[in-house]
Specification:
Blueprint: H1 3-9, E1 10-17, H2 23-33, H3 56-68, E2 71-76, E3 79-84, H4 93-99, E4 105-111, H5 118-129, E5 134-139, H6 148-159, E6 163-165, E7 167-170, E8 178-181, E9 186-189, E10 202-203, H7 211-216, H8 218-234, H9 240-245, E11 249-253, H10 262-272, E12 279-280, E13 285-286, E14 294-302, E15 311-319, E16 322-323, E17 328-330, E18 335-337, E19 343-346, E20 349-352, E21 355-356, E22 361-366, E23 375-377, E24 394-400, H11 406-418, E25 423-427, E26 433-437, H12 441-454, E27 458-462, E28 467-471, H13 478-487, E29 492-494, E30 500-504, H14 507-516, E31 522-523
Helix pairs in contact: 11-12
The chain binds guanosine-5',3'-tetraphosphate.
Residues 17, 19-25, 45, 47, 88, 139-140, 142-143, 255-258 line the site of guanosine-5',3'-tetraphosphate (G4P).
Length: 528
C-alpha cells in the first residue's frame, strides 16, 4: 500500500466530555464494533474516583490505566482508527488540551439529562479555537432528559457551535422508541428487552410513507414527521466541507450503554472525519504527504516502576514514515536519535513496530531527552506550533524538605515539568520556585512522585496569585519595560522556557498594569 493510501486510511481523534457523560462507555462500544475487544467492561476507566485526592494508590492506579488507554487503535471497514484518550477529570485538563493538538477530529459526548456542562464548554472552546472538526453525540437517550430541540439550542448557545442534526430521537426516556437516521435515511428501533443487541436498521427514505405508523405507532410517527420538518427548516443541511473546516458540527443521538446509535455514529464518522491534516510549524505548513518524516511529542508518560526511570514519549506523526532504527533529528537538542523499539498501539496493547504513518502515534522510550512539544524530523530545522501553556489556576511555593536531597528534588521537578504535570515559575528576585497547576490534585501527585521516584521530599507554601500573565518583552518599549520590571519586581518570574511572567494578584492589578504599561502586553497563554 502506498503512503498516500496509508494516510487516507487513518482517522485519529479524541473523545471529550464532562466526566460521567459516557466517554468511557462510548470508547468501549467503538472498540467492540472494531472487534478490538470481545466484551463490554474490558476498557478500564481512567477516571480519578471522587474523593481520591489523598488516595495515592488511586492516583497510581489511574496513571497505570492511562498508559494502557493513551492510544486505542483498531481497524474498522478498512480504516485504521486511533482514539487518543483524554482525561475527563478537570485537574488534568491541561493534558487534554495537549492531546487535542494531536487529533485530527473530535467527538463531543453530552449527557441528555445534564446538557452542556462546564468541562465540555472549556474543551470545546479549545477545539473551536483550533478549528478542529467536531461531531456531537448526545448520549443516554434511554433516560429522561431534555427536549431534543432545547438541547440543540443549548449546544449552539453555550458551545458556540453551528449544528446539523444527522439523527433524531423518536421519543425519549421511558418512551424512547428509536432513532431516525437522517444521514442514512433509516430507522433504528430501540428494544428495551434486548438492550445489548445491535438491531438492524429499517430503510426509510420518506417518513411520510404511511407504513411508518405501523412501525412506531401513529402518535410517534406524526410527532417524528413534525419534528423532522422543523429540523429541515431550522438547521442547515450537513455540509462536509463546513464540518471539516470546523464551522459546522453534525449531531447524533444515542445511548452508548445500550449500543444504540453507536454504529451509525461510527459509520458516518469513518466517511466524513478528516484523514491526517497538515500542521503548522514555525517555518511552513507541513502536509502529511510531504515525504520526509516529521512529528512532535504531545504526551510523556513516566514509567510506573520507579527503579527504571525511562519514560514513554508519545509522538504524533505529521508527515512521512517513521522507521525503527533510523536516526532522526531532535530539533531542540540539535541531536540525532534513533529508536530500536518504538511502540505502536493496538486496542490496549502495545507492540514494537517497524514503520508508522502520518496520523499514527508511536511511543518512544526516553531517558530524559524529550519534553512536551519537541519536534523530530529527518533533518529539517523546524518546530511544530501549538502547544501553549495556559495560566494555571493554583500556585504554591515548593520548598525542599530534605537538604541532603536537593539534587534529586531539582531533577525530579525538572522531569515532572517536562512531562507536563504542572508548570514551574522561578522568581526573578530570589530564585524561589513556584509550582502552578490546573487542579489541587497535582500537588499531591507531585509530592508523592518526588518521594517515590526521586527520593526527594518537598513541602508547599501558599502564595496568592490570581493569574500568570506572559509578558511580551520583545515588543515592549524599552523604557516602559524597565520601569515595569522595577516596579513589579516582586511579582516577576521566568517560566521553564525563560519567558517573563507577571504573577498578578488580582484581575484589577492586571487591568491597572495594562493601563500603566500599555506596550508591555500581558497574555494568558505562553504562545502569542
Ligand atoms: P465518562 O467516561 O464520560 O466519565 O463516563 P462513563 O462512560 O464512565 O459513564 C458514566 C456513567 O454513565 C456510567 O454509569 C455509565 O454506565 C453510564 N452510561 C453511559 N452511557 C449510558 C447510556 O447510554 N445510558 C445510561 N442510562 N447510562 C449510561 P456508572 O453507574 O457511573 O458506572 P458503571 O458502574 O455503570 O460503570
Amino acid at each position: 500500500m502506498s503512503i498516500v493510501e496509508e494516510i487516507a486510511k487513518r482517522r485519529t481523534f479524541g473523545i471529550v466530555s464532562h466526566p460521567d457523560a459516557g466517554k468511557t462507555t462510548l470508547t468501549e462500544k467503538l472498540l467492540l464494533f472494531g472487534g478490538a475487544i470481545q466484551e463490554a467492561g474490558a476498557v478500564k476507566s481512567n477516571k480519578v474516583k471522587k474523593g481520591a485526592t489523598s488516595d495515592f494508590m488511586e492516583i497510581e492506579r489511574q496513571r497505570g490505566i492511562s498508559v494502557a488507554t493513551s492510544v486505542l487503535a483498531f481497524n474498522y471497514k478498512e480504516k485504521k482508527i486511533n482514539i487518543l484518550d483524554t482525561p475527563g477529570h478537570k485537574d488534568f485538563a491541561e493534558d487534554t488540551f495537549r492531546t487535542l493538538t494531536a487529533v485530527d477530529s473530535v467527538i463531543v459526548v453530552i449527557d441528555v439529562a445534564k446538557g452542556v456542562e462546564e468541562q465540555t464548554e472549556k474543551l470545546v472552546e479549545v477545539c473551536r479555537m483550533r478549528n478542529i472538526p467536531m461531531i456531537v453525540f448526545i448520549n443516554k437517550l434511554d433516560r429522561e432528559g431534555k427536549d431534543a430541540f432545547d438541547l440543540l439550542d443549548e449546544v449552539e448557545q453555550k458551545l458556540g457551535l453551528k449544528v446539523a442534526p444527522l439523527s433524531f430521537p423518536i421519543g425519549m426516556g421511558y418512551d424512547f422508541k428509536g432513532i431516525y437516521n437522517i444521514w442514512e435515511k433509516n430507522i433504528n428501533l430501540f428494544s428495551g428487552e434486548n438492550k445489548q443487541q445491535i438491531s438492524e436498521a429499517i430503510e426509510f427514505e420518506d417518513v411520510n410513507d404511511p407504513s411508518l405508523d405501523d412501525i412506531i405507532g401513529q402518535e410517534a410517527a406524526e410527532q417524528l414527521r413534525e419534528e423532522l420538518e422543523l429540523v429541515y427548516e431550522v438547521y442547515p443541511d450537513f455540509d462536509i466541507e463546513a464540518y471539516r473546516d470546523g464551522t459546522q458540527q453534525p449531531v447524533f443521538f444515542g445511548s452508548a450503554l445500550n449500543n444504540f446509535g453507536v454504529r451509525e455514529l461510527l459509520d458516518c464518522f469513518i466517511e466524513i472525519a478528516p484523514k491526517p491534516r497538515p500542521k503548522e510549524s514555525d517555518t511552513r505548513l507541513v502536509s502529511p504527504t510531504d515525504g520526509k518524516f516529521s512529528g512532535f511529542v504531545f504526551k510523556i508518560h513516566a514509567n510506573m516502576d520507579p527503579k527504571h526511570r525511562d519514560r514513554l514519549a508519545f509522538v504524533k506523526i505529521v508527515s512521512g514514515t517513521f522507521e525503527r532504527n533510523v536516526p532522526y533529528l531532535h530539533v531542540r537538542h540539535n541531536k540525532k536519535l534513533k529508536f530500536s523499539s518504538p511502540n505502536a498501539f493496538f486496542a490496549e496493547k502495545k507492540q514494537v513496530v517497524d514503520v508508522s504513518y502520518p496520523g499514527d502515534i508511536v511511543g518512544l522510550h526516553d531517558t530524559g531527552n524529550f519534553k512536551i512539544g519537541d519536534t523530530l524530523t529527518e533533518g529539517e530545522k523546524m518546530n511544530f506550533k501549538g502547544i501553549p501553556s495556559f495560566s494555571p489556576e493554583h500556585f504554591r511555593y515548593i520548598n525542599n524538605a530534605d537538604p541532603m536531597k536537593a539534587k534529586q528534588l531539582h531533577k525530579g521537578i525538572d522531569q515532572l515539568m517536562d512531562e507536563g504535570v504542572a508548570q514551574l515559575f522561578t522568581m526573578e528576585l530570589n530564585g524561589r520556585k513556584i509550582i502552578g497547576t490546573v487542579g489541587a490534585l497535582q500537588y499531591e501527585v507531585i509530592q508523592y512522585r518526588l518521594e517515590h521516584e526521586y527520593g526527594a521530599k518537598c513541602t508547599y507554601e501558599n502564595i496568592h496569585v490570581h493569574k500568570a500573565c506572559w509578558a511580551g518583552e520583545e515588543q515592549a518599549d524599552p523604557e516602559e519595560l524597565k520601569e515595569f520590571k522595577r516596579v513589579k519586581q516582586k511579582f516577576l518570574a521566568r517560566d521553564k522556557q525563560g519567558q517573563l511572567v507577571f504573577l498578578a494578584d488580582s484581575a484589577f492589578t492586571i487591568q491597572m498594569t495594562r493601563q500603566k504599561y500599555p506596550s508591555v502586553i500581558l497574555h494568558f497563554t505562553s504562545e502569542f
